[in-house]
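Researcher: Before we compare anything, I want clean individual predictions. No alignment, no superposition, just each chain on its own. First chain goes here; please echo the sequence and then give the structure tokens.
Model: Echoing the first chain and its structure:
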Amino acid sequence: MGLTLHPMKEIRVIVAGDHQAFVTDLLDRVKATGYTIIGNVSGKGHHSVHEAHFMFSEQESLEMIMTVVPEEKVEPLLAGLRPLFERHSGVMFVTDVAVSRREYFGKQPAGS
């Protein structure tokens, strides 16, 4: 018996550390079943190069928050993040992914 894959959406949000709680609170409100946070993210964007600084507080660093959700949760997340991105820098990526255990991501199998 092989694994069956189910379509989902992966959302990655990169924001200043002091906005991490805003993003994770939103994920909790839309009932994302979980998320992963990677701290001290470095990169280059249209503003400049941003380097991780482990010696400073997390508020001064960039954080990447990742989650996987059913497609119907994408629009509420976009709406919730809009005010943040209107006032502050940051980026969001939405990608099609497939998971083998959809019940882990808030989507119950048909007939349950």
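Researcher: Okay. Second chain, same rules.
Model: Second chain and its structure:
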Amino acid sequence: MKATARRTSHFQHDVTIRDHHVGADEPEAAGGDDAAPSPEELLAAALASCTAITMEMYAQRKGWDIGAVEVEAEFTPPDRGCPTKFRLVMRLPSHLSEEQVERLKVIAAKCPIHRTLDSDVMFDEQMELVEVAR
């Protein structure tokens, strides 16, 4: 999997993922133009959407009609001495049984983004100098 961010103006970037494009920017309070979600907001969006999709895929495999699923993810960046925090609220239809809800809660924590954020992460960073057209 690969994503490429290219500057379009100031802090705004066009992020290319396969054949898809997503914008990224910083809020005005951080010096951006607030033309798109911030990278931290995109991280929360990745967690929310991955959690919802993981629960929906599991329910489909089980033959459960869970209808509309909504996941809200709130991201709090790390502060001195405090870890990064994610708050997830998963909204499911009220007709689900207690057992289904409990199983979906367990499965939600197994989404690939959740597992990535919950594990050790390694970075291989490289700098490349390129000619810039003027």
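Researcher: What stands out in the second chain?
Model: The chain has two domains: 1-37, 38-134. Additionally, The first strand starts at residue 4 and ends at 9.
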